[in-house]
């Protein structure tokens, strides 16, 4: 059956279309060229005057895996009860989680209601990947995927300290992608999570690791080279050293040079853009960071905007989270060392606009957004739930698109923070085209989802339909219609049909001979068999709800 | 890359999930662990469903179960001894029938969860302990009563990356009728044992925490334990490169035991100000970690303890403990259980379901919470899976409401 979306006003940056009036035809979940006159059109939606974009893609959102579930367990005070309507009531219980700790069903429902059709978990501990996939598999409505964390796993650090050749590292990285069913590689506080296990409390970019005698810079060089050489699209996803530390902008700038010019993505860069100026020795270095991003074309970044209110931070960076636990609100936290592979730190936070640091963090994120010129290289994230729940995206979009709204919010901030920010001097207002770029076309390109994030022939028919409104928060909070793989699943901001989405992976070719050494390592040091570490397609598919979509051959 | 066929099985008989069980070891009954031996010796074939104690077809039993649930105003899904797949199905059934849900280990799980929810904690996992721990302090437990192969798999291992395993310092603090012989090192060094009854642990552990935090203590002894001995223990913990404080919540079975657990975990937090230390909660059985975790990600809340009296029907699942049943007098009971279930009185409905890791495949969380392992059908049996049976019951319930 063919579905026709008529008279759509299409914003499709992947094809340079900005408000082009167009008809879209869908068959078997895909966008097709205009069919022959003889072919029957089954359904027609007249979208006259409506804005039509591809489904949005969240390229960095903590939606599944150990730390996320610990956050849910940690914070029972966020829970409430609610009345649900069908079809959501059919698959979901009456517990209503806080937006920072949604259960898996809520996660899928709230994303699709906002016109998002995919989200990527950026911190999959390799050894915990099976859990991450279980949770993502229980997340309805949207497509999922993950980035596997390397760079604090003892296997890689041993390889580097033994001067292993790059090919061995490349094979190990590719093997990890296969074994964990992920689509990208992330490094968190390179070397630092491991160093914490040896009682180090900070790890700078050029500081030798206490045990392995290698530097974070060396880890970044090796991993960015590996990611490049094995030929996956997604550049190395880097959570820099010194997260949250005043003066860390210099580490961030230095990190940009650590990949020898190879593509690198710096994540939640707001948390890494801090100076030490002023009486409180905490200032915005957003201008320095944005200037460097503008100049360094190999760098992309997502912002990790904070917004005010209660949330919980969940990170693999247990070294820095252990320090942050002092300012937890409510005052409790979970810090873990995990399997000679990684760590995790879960710390609740309440960001307040009257607090100097929080207010400046808010301004720093927006300064970065407004000062990075190319919307293809800066991505809209709150680092859910670390900066704010993903459900605050419509509010964030309005802050970017509406200078008056933004300045009114700025005027309510802590006055000392206002004095330290140049936000009001930034007059830029994002256009719909730029928003569509940073939330659709660019993330699809960055991750390597060739058939998502655009509305060209052959694309998956993940499509969001909006009524244009002056209030952009209202517009983006509640699309008129959302299609997932060609099926109408949301109408007037409400889910009308439950679907389950797929899991996106990258499985580049590699030399299977690398497994011999890996197996020896498992047999000597681990408490599980190497074969049990690997996740099969069948484990992802399980009960038939999920399936794997691979984006490489080999 | 081909995902190779697993040559080793994962044993779900306790929370340790040892995944080095060969088919040969199962068939020749050469298993070093009593729990594993008993698990793999189970006979689970050729059992038929029952309604009111009489043999019935699967369809008849499903219809009977659905009819009871239709009549029920406040059902409870309990036992819940299953794996992640089973837990998902049980959560689905609880949504569909507006049932409460609990697990047969809920009360001991909650002791830990109260601490997590009040203060949080700092914990580690088995492979970290295996490669790093130079001091292991077991509080109120010998571990081996629950996790028989703990010393074999984690402590007295041939080699470790960052420490000499045979030189580890093993200390037992308190506990009743402990088997401390596994704590003897391969070179014959006996563990340190600081005796006190489990009931005395609240006072002893809080003193240990105070000493680690450098608080002054004027008493000479607490619960019969000399303070100097605890002070020396505190110094050992502070001097360790990676001290690991182990407890088993099931062994701390007294009122307000969560406060003892919190004192253990806050001792770890205090140690981590200057050195490295971590907590490790062991035990775990009947898929309790898996069911609690899956319940949490699906519902946003942890598993709670049951209030039996407020429910008028119980759906009981006992995949790993065929002898386990709800409290006497509970009725009606629908057992979706191990084929080798044993009953004092016949339940209203009994539907044998496959046990994950024995009769069918599955996935299970290890007790340390970070590692999940695949389970294989070691001895494939004819019973349907829990998910299949629940799907059939739900279809009957749907039919009724359509």
Verbal overview:
The complex is a heterodimer of chains A (554) and B (402). By secondary structure, chain A is of the alpha/beta class. Chain A has one domain. In chain A, the strands form five sheets. In chain A, strands 6, 9, 10, 11, 12, 13, 16, 20, 25 and 26 form a ten-stranded parallel sheet that branches. In chain A, β9 (116-125), α4 and β10 form a beta-alpha-beta unit. In chain A, α9 (249-256) runs parallel beside α10. The mean pLDDT of chain A is 96. Chain B has 402 residues and is α/β, with parallel strands linked by helices. Chain B folds into two domains: 47-105 and 287-360 and 385-401, inorganic pyrophosphatase (n-terminal core) (Alpha-Beta Complex); 109-281, Dimethylsulfoxide Reductase, domain 2. Chain B has helices at 23-27, 34-40, 58-71, 84-97, 106-118, 126-132, 150-155, 201-212, 227-239, 257-271, 288-299, 386-401; strands at 8-9, 21-22, 50-51, 54-55, 75-81, 100-101, 120-123, 135-139, 169-173, 192-194, 221-222, 225-226, 243-248, 277-282, 313-318, 333-337, 349-352, 362-365, 372-375. In chain B, the strands form five sheets. Chain B has a seven-stranded mixed sheet with strand order 4-3-17-16-15-5-6, covered by helices on one side. Chain B has a five-stranded parallel sheet with strand order 10-9-8-13-14, with helices on one face. A two-stranded antiparallel ribbon of chain B has the order 1-2. In chain B, α4 (84-97) crosses α11. The longest helix of chain B has 16 residues, at 386-401. Chain B is globular, with a radius of gyration of 23 Å. Residues 1-6 of chain B have low confidence and may be disordered. β18 of chain A pairs parallel with β7 (120-123) of chain B, so a sheet runs across the interface. Chain B: It comes from Methylophilus medardicus. Chain B: This is Formylmethanofuran dehydrogenase. Chain A: One of its GO terms (molecular function) is hydrolase activity, acting on carbon-nitrogen (but not peptide) bonds.
């Amino acid at each position: 059956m063919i579905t026709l979306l008529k008279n759509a006003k299409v914003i499709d940056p992947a094809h340079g279309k900005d408000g082009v009036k167009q008809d879209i035809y869908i068959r078997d979940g895909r966008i097709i060229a205009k069919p022959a006159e003889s072919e029957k059109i089954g359904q027609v939606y007249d979208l006259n005057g409506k804005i039509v974009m591809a489904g949005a893609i969240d390229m960095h959102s903590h939606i599944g895996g150990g730390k996320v579930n610990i956050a849910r367990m940690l914070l029972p005070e966020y829970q409430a009860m609610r009345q649900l309507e069908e079809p959501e009531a059919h698959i979901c219980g009456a517990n209503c989680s806080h937006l920072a700790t949604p259960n898996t069903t809520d996660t899928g429902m709230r994303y699709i209601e906002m016109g998002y059709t995919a989200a990527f978990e950026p911190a999959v501990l390799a050894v915990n990947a099976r859990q991450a996939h279980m949770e993502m598999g229980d997340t309805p409505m949207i497509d999922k995927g993950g980035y596997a964390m390397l760079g604090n796993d003892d296997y890689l650090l041993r390889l580097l300290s033994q001067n292993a050749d790059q090919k061995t590292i490349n094979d190990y990285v590719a093997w990890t992608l296969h074994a964990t069913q992920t689509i990208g590689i992330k490094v968190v506080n390179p070397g630092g999570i491991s160093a914490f296990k040896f009682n180090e409390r900070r790890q700078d970019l050029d500081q030798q690791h206490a045990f392995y005698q290698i530097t974070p810079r060396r880890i970044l060089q090796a991993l960015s080279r590996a990611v490049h050489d094995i030929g996956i699209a997604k550049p190395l996803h880097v959570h820099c050293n010194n997260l949250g530390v005043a003066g860390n902008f210099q580490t961030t700038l230095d990190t940009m040079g650590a990949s020898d010019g190879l593509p690198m993505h710096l994540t939640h860069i707001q948390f890494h853009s801090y100076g030490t100026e002023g009486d409180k020795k905490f200032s915005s270095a957003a201008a320095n960071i944005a200037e460097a991003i503008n100049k360094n074309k190999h760098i992309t970044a997502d912002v990790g905007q904070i917004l005010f209110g209660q949330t919980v931070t969940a990170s693999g960076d247990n070294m820095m989270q252990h320090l942050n636990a002092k300012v937890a609100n409510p005052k409790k936290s979970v810090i873990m060392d995990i399997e000679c592979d990684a760590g995790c730190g879960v710390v609740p936070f309440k960001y307040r606009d009257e607090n100097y640091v929080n207010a400046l963090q808010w301004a720093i994120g927006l300064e970065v957004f407004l000062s990075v010129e190319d919307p293809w290289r800066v991505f809209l994230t709150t680092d859910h739930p670390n900066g704010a729940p993903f459900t605050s995206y419509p509010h964030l979009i309005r802050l970017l698109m509406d200078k008056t709204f933004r300045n009114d919010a700025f005027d309510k901030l802590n006055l000392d923070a206002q004095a330290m920010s140049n936000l009001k001097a930034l007059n830029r207002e994002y256009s719909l085209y730029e928003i569509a770029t940073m939330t659709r076309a660019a993330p699809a390109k960055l991750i390597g989802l060739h058939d998502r994030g655009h509305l060209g022939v052959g694309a998956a028919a993940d499509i969001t339909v909006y009524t244009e409104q002056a209030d952009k928060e209202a517009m983006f909070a509640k699309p008129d219609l959302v299609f997932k793989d060609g099926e109408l699943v949301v109408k007037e901001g409400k889910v009308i049909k439950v679907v389950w989405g797929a899991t996106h992976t990258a499985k580049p070719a590699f030399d299977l001979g690398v497994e011999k050494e890996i197996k020896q390592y498992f047999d000597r040091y681990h408490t599980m068999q190497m074969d049990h570490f690997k996740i099969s397609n069948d484990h992802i598919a399980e009960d038939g709800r999920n399936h794997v979509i691979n984006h490489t051959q080999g | 890359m081909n995902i190779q066929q697993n040559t080793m099985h994962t044993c779900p008989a306790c929370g340790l999930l040892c995944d080095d069980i060969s088919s040969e070891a199962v068939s020749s009954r050469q298993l070093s662990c009593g729990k594993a031996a008993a698990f793999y010796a189970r006979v689970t074939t050729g059992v038929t469903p029952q309604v009111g104690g009489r043999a019935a077809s699967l369809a008849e039993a499903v219809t009977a179960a659905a009819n009871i649930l239709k009549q029920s105003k406040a059902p409870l899904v309990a036992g819940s001894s299953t794996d992640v797949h089973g837990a998902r199905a049980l959560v689905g059934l609880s949504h569909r029938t507006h049932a409460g849900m609990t697990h047969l280990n809920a009360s001991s799980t909650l002791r830990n969860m109260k601490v997590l929810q009040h203060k949080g904690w700092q914990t580690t996992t088995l492979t970290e302990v295996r490669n790093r721990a130079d001091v292991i302090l077991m509080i109120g437990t010998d571990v081996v009563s629950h996790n028989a192969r703990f010393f074999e798999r984690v402590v007295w291992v041939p080699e470790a990356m960052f420490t000499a395993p045979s030189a580890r310092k093993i200390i037992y603090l308190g506990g009743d009728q402990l088997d401390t012989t596994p704590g003897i090192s391969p070179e014959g060094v006996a563990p340190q044992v600081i005796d006190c009854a489990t009931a005395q642990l609240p006072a002893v552990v809080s003193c240990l925490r105070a000493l680690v935090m450098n608080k002054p203590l004027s008493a000479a002894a607490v619960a019969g334990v000399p303070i100097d001995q605890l002070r020396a223990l505190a110094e050992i913990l502070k001097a360790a490169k990676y001290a690991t404080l182990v407890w088993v919540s099931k062994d701390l079975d007294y009122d307000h035991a969560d406060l003892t657990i919190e004192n253990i975990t806050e001792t770890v937090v205090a140690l981590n100000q200057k050195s490295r230390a971590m907590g490790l909660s062991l035990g775990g059985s009947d898929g309790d970690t898996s069911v609690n975790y899956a319940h949490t990600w699906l519902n946003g809340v942890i598993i709670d303890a049951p209030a039996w009296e407020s429910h008028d029907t119980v759906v009981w699942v006992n995949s790993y403990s065929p002898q386990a049943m709800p409290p006497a007098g509970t009725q009606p009971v629908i057992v979706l259980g191990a084929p080798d279930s044993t009953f004092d009185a016949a339940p209203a409905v009994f539907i044998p379901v496959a046990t994950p890791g024995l009769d069918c495949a599955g996935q299970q969380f290890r007790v340390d919470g970070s590692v999940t392992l695949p389970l294989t059908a070691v001895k494939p049996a004819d019973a349907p899976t829990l998910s299949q049976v629940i799907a059939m019951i739900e279809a009957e319930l749907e039919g009724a409401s359509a």
